[in-house]
Design a protein that fits this description.
This protein is mainly α. It contains ten helices and no strands. Helices cover 70% and strands 0% of the residues.
């Protein structure tokens, strides 16, 4: 049984939210979150300033919404990819490629803002790791590798996944070199991670 599409006021609310999100994302791409002008966002979206704050209490909430959507898209691809057995290097390499590909879609400023939100002290306290599909995906990859004897986890799979992703995010937000040099840095990072997970 398929769920009915929203209608009436609910459909209108969702359309308005999407317009505000699209306008905010465009502004963030141009100026970065810190310099983004809410006035320019609401003018572009054709809404009142209060409407922005109704949907997104802070500019950071825009990033959290975008992050959730990006993670859903990233996690969907490896889920299909991992439908067949993959070894640990292949699975983690695919995850790195998909996370790094966000920069092409979002642009450098927005990409860095999106990754930086992981480290923000003002991140909402309701943030639960199970809502982050990329973390869930990496936990699954690590659990499968552990069960297959490919990896020995010094800590539980969740913490191992978080360490892996935080290191990756930190590397991506601080690497401003050419694409070739970034690829070398990412390959080196993957090698280091794999060595740390080797069974002892």
């Amino acid at each position: 049984m398929t769920q009915d599409r929203p209608r009436g006021r609910e459909a209108q609310r969702l359309q308005t939210r999407q317009r505000v999100l699209d306008a905010a994302v465009a502004e963030f791409k141009e100026t970065g979150m810190a310099e983004a002008d809410v006035g320019a966002i609401v003018e572009s979206a054709g809404v009142a300033r209060d409407t922005f704050y109704f949907h997104f209490p802070t500019k950071e909430h825009v990033l959290l919404e975008l992050q959730a959507r990006e993670e859903a898209g990233i996690a969907q691809q490896p889920t299909r990819f991992l439908a067949e057995p993959r070894d640990l290097p292949t699975a983690l390499s695919k995850t790195i490629q998909l996370v790094a590909a966000m920069e092409g879609r979002l642009g450098s400023l927005l990409f860095k803002d999106l990754l930086a939100v992981h480290f923000s002290p003002t991140r909402p306290l309701t943030d639960e790791w199970m809502e982050h599909r990329v973390i869930v995906l990496v936990v699954r990859i690590l659990e499968n590798a552990r069960d297959a004897g490919e990896a020995e986890l010094a800590v539980d799979p969740y913490h191992s996944a978080v360490f892996f992703l935080l290191g990756l995010y930190a590397l991506l937000t601080t690497t401003t070199s050419t694409e070739q040099l970034r690829d070398v840095a990412l390959d080196s990072y993957l090698t280091t991670v794999l060595r740390s997970l080797e069974p002892r």
